């Protein structure tokens, strides 16, 4: 069967067609030359894929993929953006009977007579070749000077709570820099909850929905002390670490306690440039973080497994860093002769993270709420004296990004 199909395709395989906005290439362009050049598309039918050259990019589309991604009403519901087609019913050796480019669309007719039509721009936008060159989420990586010189404005409570444009600006800053601030928030747990609910759903954890802590050692975690805390990501011991961390200092009668913020992706990209082998090792060796708590009514045993650096495999974009030396558990997922190299790589990353020029120190005062991308930006604090009351919560990453996308932001 496959042989017969291939024989039928052979004449087509030997043809490469050039079309200009639905006209044959032999026609004389009558409109602006640049415009026509931008619309030019050539395609070539190979045994295992359709090659399309459009907008200066050579792309390849598997035939089953093309049938699976048909945008016709019987195959796809454009209202719900859900697939109607049963992918399990597609012949895995399927090939189009005929192929054409018409009016900026690729048109395929399949052996059962079904016609699929794809806009060339949609194909380009969804091709692997374009996706592997583009970031899912554009970011500005920063050290202390870069962030300060950018002069990112904080949002103000009143406008933030009432104006969607202000929320959109806030989210754009948050996506680009991994941190964003809202000022003049009433210094109460209720107002802090309200300001976070403006952005997303709250992620309830073992620490509660909204948490509020002082240095009373009420929980079995060093956060509940007056000690300095080195830079770290939170809840690295969750299978999916919390996406966003929110802090609001409601009151502090004493000294010290500044908050430390470090862009983990800035440091990781420095490592990728200087020591690509170390970056690769940290991106591939799974390690375990663990949290065991046995205090009063709190009985918890959490474990999360994953590499320190997490990158999308198709475009090598960093999307998650797990870095918490307090909660990193026993390393027993790599053989002994790889452990030394892992420690070398971890030290190189730590050196970058600890460079003083990468440290952004912020004094959180009552009214200033900070939102931190816990998958990217590390936080820590200096030791303090006196009573310091901090409240906050974690937000669900999916909902924050969903809010941003609904505003048309790229996330
Ligand atoms: Fe923390």
TrEMBL record:
<dbReference type="GO" id="GO:0050353">
    <property type="term" value="F:trimethyllysine dioxygenase activity"/>
</dbReference>
<dbReference type="InterPro" id="IPR003819">
    <property type="entry name" value="TauD/TfdA-like"/>
</dbReference>
<dbReference type="InterPro" id="IPR042098">
    <property type="entry name" value="TauD-like_sf"/>
</dbReference>
<comment type="similarity">
    <text>Belongs to the gamma-BBH/TMLD family.</text>
</comment>
<dbReference type="InterPro" id="IPR010376">
    <property type="entry name" value="GBBH-like_N"/>
</dbReference>
<keyword id="KW-0124">Carnitine biosynthesis</keyword>
<feature type="domain" description="Gamma-butyrobetaine hydroxylase-like N-terminal">
    <location>
        <begin position="47"/>
        <end position="123"/>
    </location>
</feature>
<dbReference type="InterPro" id="IPR038492">
    <property type="entry name" value="GBBH-like_N_sf"/>
</dbReference>
<dbReference type="Pfam" id="PF02668">
    <property type="entry name" value="TauD"/>
</dbReference>
<comment type="pathway">
    <text>Amine and polyamine biosynthesis; carnitine biosynthesis.</text>
</comment>
<dbReference type="Pfam" id="PF06155">
    <property type="entry name" value="GBBH-like_N"/>
</dbReference>
<dbReference type="GO" id="GO:0005506">
    <property type="term" value="F:iron ion binding"/>
</dbReference>
<protein>
    <recommendedName>
        <fullName>Trimethyllysine dioxygenase, mitochondrial</fullName>
        <ecNumber>1.14.11.8</ecNumber>
    </recommendedName>
</protein>
<dbReference type="GO" id="GO:0045329">
    <property type="term" value="P:carnitine biosynthetic process"/>
</dbReference>
<keyword id="KW-0223">Dioxygenase</keyword>
<dbReference type="InterPro" id="IPR012776">
    <property type="entry name" value="Trimethyllysine_dOase"/>
</dbReference>
<keyword id="KW-0408">Iron</keyword>
<keyword id="KW-0560">Oxidoreductase</keyword>
<keyword id="KW-0479">Metal-binding</keyword>
<feature type="domain" description="TauD/TfdA-like">
    <location>
        <begin position="156"/>
        <end position="394"/>
    </location>
</feature>
<dbReference type="InterPro" id="IPR050411">
    <property type="entry name" value="AlphaKG_dependent_hydroxylases"/>
</dbReference>
<comment type="function">
    <text>Converts trimethyllysine (TML) into hydroxytrimethyllysine (HTML).</text>
</comment>
<dbReference type="GO" id="GO:0005739">
    <property type="term" value="C:mitochondrion"/>
</dbReference>
């Amino acid at each position: 069967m496959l042989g017969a199909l291939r024989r039928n395709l052979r004449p087509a395989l030997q043809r490469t067609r050039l079309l200009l906005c639905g006209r044959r290439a032999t026609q004389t362009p009558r409109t602006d030359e640049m415009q026509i050049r931008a619309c030019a598309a050539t395609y070539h039918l190979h045994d295992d894929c359709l090659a399309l050259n459009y907008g200066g990019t050579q792309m390849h589309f598997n035939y089953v993929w093309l049938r699976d991604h048909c945008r016709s009403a019987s195959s796809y519901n454009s209202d719900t953006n859900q697939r109607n087609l049963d992918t399990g019913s597609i012949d895995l050796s399927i090939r189009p009977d005929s192929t054409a480019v018409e009016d900026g669309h690729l048109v395929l007719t399949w052996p059962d007579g079904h016609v699929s039509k794809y806009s060339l721009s949609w194909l380009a936008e969804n091709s692997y070749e374009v996706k592997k060159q583009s970031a899912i989420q554009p970011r500005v990586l920063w050290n202390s000077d870069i962030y300060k010189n950018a002069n990112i404005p904080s949002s103000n409570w009143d406008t933030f709570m009432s104006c969607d444009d202000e929320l959109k600006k806030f989210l754009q800053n948050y996506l680009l820099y991994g941190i964003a601030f809202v000022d003049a928030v009433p210094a109460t747990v209720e107002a802090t909850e309200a300001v976070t609910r403006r952005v997303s759903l709250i992620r309830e954890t073992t620490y509660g929905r909204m948490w509020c802590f002082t240095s009373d050692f009420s929980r079995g975690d060093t956060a509940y002390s007056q000690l300095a805390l080195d830079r770290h990501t939170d809840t690295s011991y969750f299978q999916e670490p919390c996406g966003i961390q929110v802090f609001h200092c409601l009151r502090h009668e004493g000294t010290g306690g500044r908050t430390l913020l470090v862009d983990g992706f800035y440091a990781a990209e420095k490592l990728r440039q200087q020591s690509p082998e170390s970056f690769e090792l940290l991106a591939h060796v799974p390690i375990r973080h663990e949290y065991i708590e046995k205090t009063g009514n709190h009985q918890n045993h959490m474990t999360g497994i994953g590499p320190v650096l997490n990158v999308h495999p198709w475009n090598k974009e960093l999307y998650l860093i797990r870095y918490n030396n307090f909660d990193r558990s026993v390393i027993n997922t790599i053989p002994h002769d790889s452990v030394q190299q892992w420690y070398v790589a971890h030290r190189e990353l730590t050196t970058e993270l600890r460079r003083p020029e990468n440290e952004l120190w912020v004094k959180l005062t009552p009214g200033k709420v900070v939102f931190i991308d816990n998958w990217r930006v590390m936080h820590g604090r200096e030791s303090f004296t006196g009573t310091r009351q901090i409240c906050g919560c974690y937000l669900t990453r999916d909902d924050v990004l969903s809010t941003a996308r609904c505003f048309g932001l790229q996330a």
